[in-house]
Amino acid sequence: MLLYLRLLKESFAFAINALRNNKLRTLLSLLGVTIGIFSIIAVLAAVDSLDRKITNDLSGLDKNTIYLMKFSFGPSDIPKWKREQFPNVKYDEYVYLKGTMNNTAQLGYQIFTKSETVKYDSKVVSDVNIVPVSAEFSEIEALDFENGRFYNESEANSGAKVIVIGNEIATSLFDTADPVGKDVRLYGQRFSVIGVLTKKGASLFGDSNDSSVYIPVNFIRQKFGDNNTSLTNVIVFKPVEGVDMEAYKAEISQKLRTYRGIKAGEIDNFFINVFSGFTDLIDGIIGSMKLGGWVISGFSLLVGGFGIANIMFVSVKERTHLIGIQKSLGAKNRFILFQFLFEAIILSVIGGLIGLLLVWGIAVGLTKALDFEFVLGLDNVLLGTGLAGIIGLISGILPAISASKLDPVEAIRTGM
Fold first, then answer.
1. Distances (CA, A) of 163 to 135, 208, 359
2. Which of 80-84, 235-239, 250-254, 338-342 is predicted with the least confidence, judged by mean pLDDT?
3. How crowded is residue 225: how many other Cβ atoms within 10 Å of its Cβ?
4. Are 35 and 355 in contact (CB under 8 A)?
5. What residues does the MacB-like periplasmic core domain cover (predicted)?
6. Segment (H or E) for 213
7. Exposed/middle/buried for 313, CB within 10 Å: 0-12, 13-18, 19+?
8. I need a labelling partner for 338 at 20 to 30 A (CA). Which of 38, 56, 163, 186 fits?
9. Pairing mode, if any, of strands 189-197 and 162-165?
10. In 52-122, where do the E strands start and end?
11. Count of CB atoms within 10 A of residue 393's CB?
């Protein structure tokens, strides 16, 4: 054991010596490994950071959440002209389904509308995301409050002029003052602030809660009516845990078809979108990004492997005389083999560590420059180091075998 530790120490010294004596040649040889490890780990770190951000953005929603609306989340076999004729879901359908659906934890109603301006005294915030929803959305989206509360069912049903504001809106309008109990102006009318949401950060999917405000859906219905074509309505279902999703979707379809009077043989004029389908699509995209990163970076690693093999063959040739002396003094073939093998691995790992250091530096810089956290996880660091070691092992095996098989007499004579 002590012999191999000493061997490892000597191999490390030879590797460092190669870097010192042949800086340009060694660095050029290591460049392939550095670029390869940098490429793979940079892609994996970026994808992992993106995956973490997506998971955080969607953490408030159950994968079984269902969106009933006139549009489909994904591709559809129904012709576009026919889909364009589908009616918006109506508030009375929401009331009907809420009273008749089984196995439902929460059922809410939402209207998608355009952004507006919110004012408080002389302060104005433009392009605010308006979210008109029923009272159930506090539970459906698992909203967190820094202060105050969400509006109750009575306030929602009456279309009361109450408002829940995002953290960014609160800061822009009120600075450090408590917004709860104060009035803001929206749609030319006064709304009383009853709640402030906890800061969540930028979202990858549309507007963040930080730059959004929630108001009772019935206020929008009273203002614009139920047949306004510029608005998109959606009924959101949160089924109880463990429900048979296919049976649950079939129940929604059957009840709404009956309510709308759709005859047997006619297609549904609505779409039942399950949130898990959306997340599965995202998972597929992330998986493809990872695969693409591996394929592209694999070529760099291949070039890096050839570079390590080249420098090791040169090292064997330069130290032929020393190998002959070692063998004449009793060094075994195995000792010579491990000596060069360790050296190849150490050189490759040095190249890999340089690549990891570059990824870390870029991740820190981008995190500070952008409102997005890039994370270089320990698993990716270990993966990068392990890959570098494997590249060194594969690249160094042939030069190490050739060195171990040298005849001591011929080696000493060649060296002289």
1. 12, 16, 44
2. 338-342
3. 9
4. yes
5. 26-254
6. strand 212-216
7. middle
8. 38
9. parallel
10. 66-69, 104-112, 116-120
11. 17
227 neighbors 197 (Cβ within 8 angstroms): no
Mean pLDDT calculated for residue range 135-143: 87
Q: Kindly state the tokens that stand for 396.
A: 């160094």
Which neighbouring-strand residues pair with 214?
131, 164
CB 33 within 8 A of CB 376: no
- pLDDT bucket at 107, cuts 50 / 70 / 90: very high
Model pLDDT, residue 205: 47
Using H for helix, E for strand and C for coil, what is the string for 385-406?
A: HHHHHHHHHHHHHHHHHHHHCC
Q: How far apart are CA 188 and CA 119, in angstroms?
A: 9
The residue type of 78 is: I
Joined tokens for residue 94: 């929401």
Q: In the chain, pLDDT over 90 holds for what percent of residues? A: 25
CA atoms within 13 A on the CB side of 71: 7
Residue 91: name the closest of 213, 224, 218 by CA: 218
Q: Are strands 189-197 and 123-133 parallel, antiparallel or unpaired?
A: unpaired
- Provide the token pair at 100: 């008749």
3-state SS, residue 103? coil
Q: Which residue has the tokens 């749609």?
A: 187
- How far apart are alpha carbons 268 and 286 in whole angstroms? 32
Q: Any idea which of 116-125, 161-170, 297-306, 398-407 has the lowest mean pLDDT?
A: 297-306
DSSP 158: H
Closest CA to 319 of 9, 14, 5, 8: 14
The alpha-carbon radius of gyration of the chain (Å, integer) is 32
List the beta strands (DSSP E) in 74-207.
Answer: 104-112, 116-120, 123-133, 145-148, 162-165, 183-186, 189-197
pLDDT in tens, 204-262: 444 578 889 999 999 999 998 888 888 889 999 988 888 888 899 899 999 999 999 88
* 151 close to 160: Cβ distance less than 8 angstroms: yes
Q: Are 345 and 25 in contact (CB under 8 A)?
A: no
361 CB-contact burial (10 Å; exposed 0-12 / middle 13-18 / buried 19+): exposed
Is the pLDDT at 56 greater than 70? The verdict is: no
DSSP label at residue 243: -
